[in-house]
Amino acid sequence: MKAATDTESELEPYHNKNNIDDQMISAMSGNGEIKVTAITIRNLVNDVMIQQTLTATPADALSRSMTCGLLLSNGMQKEQTFQLSLNCPNGPIRTVVAIANGEGGVRGYVGNPGLADMHISEAIGRGRGGTVQIVKMHPDWPNPYNGITSIEHGDVDRDVGIYLAESEQRACALAASSKFNGILCTAAGGYIVEQLPGCSDETSAQVEKNLAKLVAMNGDGNGNGNGGVS
């Protein structure tokens, strides 16, 4: 992953040699019915926090948005871009934008980078008229694909999941989360589990059961469950 607009980050303060590098891993089930992609972006988030002078709450919102953008742009052609925008007219963060591409690059920004610590749903303004907007673009397309749904939860991944279900009819479970200790991101990443065409009811039920166990053991990063394939 690439931090901000740099092809490779030149910022080194948080690159501890004991830390694993950011990475993305994809796998498919043996029966070809389920695809899973997981990602870690802790180093990227720390670089972006330095570059944009972010406090923890806006960094959390941007981290989750970049995670979702990278997961959902995975598999696109390298010229394609995927833009996720959280438009929050009544939330103190105001806006969050993440733009990812098919090469695994991502950049983003928030409207209020110095926002005081608060729950992410409060910062985004849950239930106060905000929207999730997805724009997909390719240089050869005459017009971009544009989809909009309402912000209902304010924790990014569940609202993006609602968009996927309502606008694209994609059966998947999406999770993104971050943890911070002051101005240091200690963990960031997420996963998407997606049913492929022809997925059987038996496989779907087993995935739901496995995800429920995962969330019960580890949580979804938001203090609630977010594992169902819908």
Automatic annotation (TrEMBL):
GO terms (BP aspect): protein refolding
GO molecular function ontology, one term from the record: protein folding chaperone
Signal sequence range: none
InterPro entries: Heat_shock_Hsp33, Heat_shock_Hsp33_N
GO cellular component: cytoplasm
Name of the molecule in the record: Uncharacterized protein
Organism: Chaetoceros debilis
